[in-house]
Amino acid sequence: MNKSMLLATLKNKGIPDEIIAAFEKVKRENFIHERYIAYAYEDLPIPLSEGSSLPQPSAVAFMLSLLEPKQNQKILEIGSGSGYVLSLLSEIIKNGKIIGLEINQNLAIKSRRALENNSNVEIINRSGSFGLQEQAPFDRIILSASCKDEYIPTRLLDQLKEQGILVAPVKQSLIRYKKINGQIEKEEFPGFAFVNLIE
Q1: pLDDT tens, 26-42?
Q2: Count of CB atoms situated within 10 Å of the CB of 91
Q3: Where are the domains of the chain?
Q4: CATH architecture of the domain with range 3-190
Q5: Which among 15, 28, 109, 181 is placed 20 to 30 Å from 47, CA to CA?
Q6: Cα–Cα distance list, 118 to 60, 96, 140, 191, 192 (Å)
Q7: Which one-letter DSSP state was computed for residue 147?
Q8: pLDDT over threshold 70, residue 198
């Protein structure tokens, strides 16, 4: 599959235009090892290092559509890996603040290098299991690695602003939490596979 075929696939899945435009602009090959370049635009996860992987593009696109990122928001990504999702978010919301937490030091260093020209992105090398209380609250929180249960995502809900959205893979589902009038609304979308969050 080439890039234009991947973009067509995302369009057919009903992904919003601004997200597709970000996928068009961001070069996925810049975020993977050169030995996997031939697979950059296949709709497949790609290994990174030490058990991490870059999720498949259609899953990332669906997560971003659930997240509904908007201009001037503050967004936290947990498990930011090679920085691919941070780069897409940076493209979608040029005026916002985007923070990535990555426990793997090598990936944090590489992703900082890959995103050095993205002035609205900050990458912090630490576990994301407790979020980032000192910079909370956030408009949006996205977890890019799977949790074995809902303990971690629900623990992070107090770092979410009113009207905020948190999207997390839990086991084989994606779950979207919305904070409305202090209450949490939850929707589940089954049928996804992500690598596990390292705590």
Answers
A1: 999 999 888 899 999 99
A2: 17
A3: 3-190
A4: 3-Layer(aba) Sandwich (3.40)
A5: 15
A6: 20, 11, 19, 33, 29
A7: B
A8: no
